[in-house]
Amino acid sequence: MKHTLLENQGIPKGLLYTLATIAGISVANLYYNQPLLDVIRMDLKCSEMDTNHIALLTQIGYALGLLFIIPLGDLYSRKRIILTNFSLLVASLLCIASAQSIHIIHLASVVTGACSVIPQIFVPLAAQYSEPKNKGKNVGIIISGLLTGILASRVISGYIGEWLGWRMMYYIAAVLMVVSAMVILLLLPNTESNFKGKYSQLMRSLIQLIRDYPALRIYAVRSGLAFGSFMGLWATLAFKMAQAPFYAGSDEVGALGLCGVAGALSASIVGRFVQQVGVRRFNYIGTLLQLLAWALFYWGGNAYINLILGILIIDIGMQCIQLSNQTTMFNLCPSASNRINTIFMTTYFLGGSLGTFLAGAAWTNWGWSGVALSGSLLALASVGVTRFSKY
What we know:
Layout: H1 13-27, H2 37-44, H3 48-68, H4 78-98, H5 102-115, H6 119-129, H7 135-163, H8 166-187, H9 199-212, H10 214-242, H11 250-256, H12 261-277, H13 279-300, H14 304-329, H15 337-387
Helix pairs in contact: 1-6, 1-7, 1-8, 2-3, 3-5, 3-15, 4-5, 4-8, 6-7, 6-15, 7-8, 7-11, 7-12, 9-15, 10-14, 10-15, 12-13, 12-14, 13-14, 13-15
């Protein structure tokens, strides 16, 4: 049943949890490749660096989608934008599933990343239409759904890749996009636009928002650097696990994603306590947890217990940083919620792309110790931004 949504008047719980579920299903497209990288490398007989570029280009595609697609949510029907993205996702996922060349996968990965931005339409929607007292909690519910999708994607793709082949994962993903599109068509009401003008004016307004809100710049940059640190782990973990002493397949790499349940569970908690704890304090806590995790990876990376503990810690730290910044930023300019989210998440995933690239280059040249160093430096850069700013 469709509901009429009015700004600051509340969102029905059923619709909110449906959006959280679809957010998880759609964002999963970004992360299916991570446990499968070594399997894809062996199947297509390409280098580790070429395979690493699948994850890199998916992140770059997501950043492009955030920059050029998400602002449209303030100009056009969000429902139409979502359904268009689902249609393109079906095509790109089928392209990856049937590809015989790494270069075709690279191109389709950019499209897959760009069109998987659907959760970032749901987040500002939840912020705009929730009652003021429930905004943080409801955004946290969407983020929890998103994080659960990330968590499940690695586990599921790892097992499917091991037992049914990596291509089957992408065929299944295409079917999931068809089902998600049908649910959105039936349940999501149309919403009014927040911006009157042309697309060119809308995009120019992004620059004005960046100029007018220095806090937004700080929130975005420090979150992006922290996400780069986080992504450096997952961009190289499959290569690490394929070697001694683990000799692990994609199913074991995917199973490590279960450790991310700590991050998914912590998201709703962080969302509830941002106002009480404060965004700066959450950022200090988050980056210190990331640095602790990288210390475990560096000095104990050849033991499962240290990897598991490190993944738990780095996930919780990432959520302390992302959700505290993302929840707080919507208070800056509620009428530009999609564009605010565009600036934040584009910077966020550019940071993720940087971390993926640096980790891939570090792995190629210096192995796991180089990956740990690159991840630590990005976390230090993030905490440095907090230390030398007032936000």
